[in-house]
Amino acid sequence: ALWLGRILDLYKDSPTKMIFLELARAPVPRPESRQPATWLQSALKRPNVSALRQNTFRDLERPDIFFDGLHFNKVGRGLFSERIAKLIPPLAGIN
Fold first, then answer.
1. Do 65 and 75 contact (CB within 8 A), yes or no?
2. 37: burial class by Cβ within 10 Å (0-12, 13-18, 19+)?
3. pLDDT of residue 29
4. What is the pLDDT of residue 26?
5. What does the CA dihedral 61, 66, 72, 76 come to, rounded to 10 degrees?
6. What global pTM score does this model have?
7. 93 near 49, Cβ under 8 Å?
8. Is 8 exposed, middle or buried (0-12, 13-18, 19+ CB in 10 A)?
């Protein structure tokens, strides 16, 4: 978290928007973390910093759209790309 804070500090006086997201974590759903993302909560108080909901891509955690334990296959990449193309522009102030 230290280096993420330093990156945010580098852009604090710029119009650059920082958007955090959690990717689909694996082809098989994992239990949710019991510890809240306290660093992210503090980062979201900064101007021009936003985040997608933590569970935005949970429905993509299924084996049929993963190539291996970490990477989407062609179908998964398409689903992810379509969704992120709809979600990011409003957060970035793009119409």
1. yes
2. middle
3. 81
4. 92
5. -70
6. 0.84
7. no
8. middle
Instruction: Name which of 93, 80, 95 is nearest 16 in CA terms.
Output: 93
Number of H helices, E strands in the chain: 3, 2
Specify which residues 72 forms β-bridges with.
Answer: 66
Distance, CA of 7 to CA of 5 (rounded, Å): 5
For residue range 27-48, list pLDDT tens digits in order. 998 887 767 678 899 999 999 9
**What is the C-alpha end-to-end distance of the chain, expressed in Å?**
31
Six token digits for residue 51: 């985040």
Structure tokens at 17: 């928007």
Q: What is the pLDDT of residue 53?
A: 92
